[in-house]
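Contributing new records

If you add data, match the layout below exactly. Sequence lines come first and carry their own label; structure lines follow with theirs. Keep one chain per record. Anything else will be rejected by the validation script.
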Amino acid sequence: MKTITGTILLALLAGCLAAAQIGKVPPAIHAVREDLLLSLVQAGWMATAINAMTATLGVAVGVWMARFGAQRGLLWGLILLALGSALGAEATVGAFLIGSRVFEGLGFVLVVVSAPSLIAAALAHDPARRRSVLSLWSCYMPVGMAAMMTVAPLLLERYGWRGLWWWNSGAIVACIIVALGLRRRLAAPDDASPGRMLKVTQTRLFRPGPWLMGACFCCYSAIWFMLATWLPSFAVEHMGYTPRGAAWLTAIAVAANIGGNLSASYWAAQDVPRWGLLAGVQIMLGVLGWFVFSAGFDPTLRSIAAIIACGAAGALPATVMAGIPFHACEPAEIAVGNGIVMQCSNLGSFVGVPAIAALATSLGGWDGGRWLIPVLASIGVLAAWSLRGIERRMNAAALALAPATGELVRQN
């Protein structure tokens, strides 16, 4: 029991530290640009390098982890995060800093694919607790980002942006020490012969379940990051907020996402089908997201809509993370499923933010660009509806098998 608890706490801590490497950039970006004379484009690459790596390598990392084990993936991910942050602290030109963010991106994708895989493996025989803990895991992004954005101004004021990078590297090194201490007590990786890896790759990569959940996650991430990224400037320019007020509005909306993450366990306990929750979140995001960026409505109502949309939508990532073990026939496949979902998620966040900006620019304003939100939400609803049929067939097959084998029906 102590080993399981230690594994869960290590995975949660690693996830929050990985998310903190995204959260450290916005408060420091002005200081970094002044020090290294970065252009706006270079600053953009520095901010999005992690998302770009995850959007590119998520599936490949999942396949690699299916062979070598999530334990190694977590440790190497932390090492690359610490190395990238340390290298970035010593950067003297923009290109070097962006290169260090590539190391951080590699570390990030290793951590966010391996950590939930470790949790799922540790709680394989307790599906109810596994769902609850994976819901908790899904909070890693808002918790890690919010925590870093809270402490970053204090560290920047005292140590500068380089000191902030070094503090992050030191915190990750401390986590590495903990991981090394737990290493021998973690579950050993499954047999990783080349033939086994080929089997896992063939069976997992071409099954539709994880890809459909990934499509839902992609649409969610695109819309959610549109709101979180553009709300501060939009609230100032079109809703009458001061810069400080807009920052607080966005912070509240992002923090509300934690409550949405934790609500997923409640909905699962009420026997709400996974596809129904995924579709419901997409519909809610599509309607409220469109409303937030619409002119002619009361700013207070649009502010409330932004908070509800960003907050309640958190049920989607938690539901998807809990669904990956359901679609895995063996533990090694969980890492591949996590890789698919993480790649799709980061593709949405990486493409969605500039896409709505480009659309708003070409169509003469946000009233034109806002229509991208319900379009993406509709795609997410279609993916959720397709998932419905697949999971019904899986449950029917399990019911047919159970009387003959004495096995329990697979749990959502």
